[in-house]
Amino acid sequence: MSITIKSAEDIEGMRLACRLASEVLDYIAPHIKPGITTKEIDRLGAECMAQQGTISATVGYQPPGYPPYPASLCTSVNHVVCHGIPNDKPLKKGDIVNVDVTVITKDGWYGDNSRMYLIGECSIAAKRLTALTFEAMWHGIVQVKPGAHLGDIGHAIQKFAEGHGFSIVREFCGHGIGQKFHEEPQVLHYGRPGTLEKLEPGMVFTIEPMINAGRREVKEFGNDGWTIVTKDHSLSAQWEHTVLVTETGYEVMTLSAGSPPMPPFVTATRT
Ligand code: MF3
Ligand code: CO
Ligand code: CO
């Protein structure tokens, strides 16, 4: 198996899937405030997908060794790193939550993205982790262009995050995506410049760093087979975009009206 190169027609399919995945996050955004449960967020996500005519890639998703994932999206609160399963516990002021949405369109294309939401007024530490993780993702994204290497992406993210005293989760990574949820390549969020696969126009993959305020180690939480938490219970944040390698650089595919603006250092370097 190798990395698929998407044709112009494939890219049209991906653009639609990715925009719709982003619009699910727009749809739920105004509802995310103190008192809402993550199950209610899941219901809103499912409602939006039904209106779009997309389906969730996560319901029933079952990689080898895992139980089927039971919800339409993932909600990872505070020290939950990823794959949090929506539940009946209300979010409270000061929580941070990642909502990760992957949709499948009628034509079979997958779009995958996630954002962080702050619940009411949050601590300076929580706001800082959330904002700097967003910037870390973008430091990875701006590396993307033909001839660059996957290691350049990982290195840029790692250098930025560790430079701010944070740590990078190693057990989970970004991934190729297309007519399958998880394709080659693996996109590590740490690494050395000039190493690993060389990027070519038409490759599509996610960049989705999980960054911890404390130590990088993670563990499984409880026995649901999915939820991953930080071992030291420190806060963890994550943002995710699906990105296309273009002839000259990159195209962030998971954008919509409600996407947070890109950081100033990106706008400054864009032509
Ligand atoms: N959307 C996640 C990713 O970015 C994967 C979630 S799998 C699930 O790759 F089953 F936990 F939903
Ligand atoms: Co995702
Ligand atoms: Co992903």
Question: What is the approximate shape?
Answer: globular
Q: Which compounds are bound in this model? A: 2-amino-4-trifluoromethylsulfanyl-butyric acid, cobalt (II) ion
Provide the helix percentage.
25-40%
- The total beta strand count reads 15
Task: Tell me the β content.
Answer: 15-25%
Alpha plus pi helix count: 5
Q: What is the CATH architecture term?
A: Alpha-Beta Complex
Could you characterize what this model shows?
This protein starts with 7 loop residues before the first helix and ends with a helix. Strand 14 and strand 15 (250-252) form a beta hairpin. It is of the alpha+beta class and 271 residues long. The protein is globular and about 45 Å long. The protein has a single domain (8-252), classed as Creatine Amidinohydrolase. The protein has helices at residues 8-28, 38-52, 124-141, 150-163, 264-269, and strands at 55-56, 74-77, 80-82, 96-104, 110-118, 167-168, 174-176, 183-187, 204-207, 210-212, 218-220, 228-230, 236-238, 241-245, 250-252. Strands 1, 2, 4 and 5 form a four-stranded antiparallel sheet that branches. It has a three-stranded antiparallel sheet with strand order 3-12-11, with no helix packed on it. The site of 2-amino-4-trifluoromethylsulfanyl-butyric acid (MF3) has 12 residues, from strand 4.
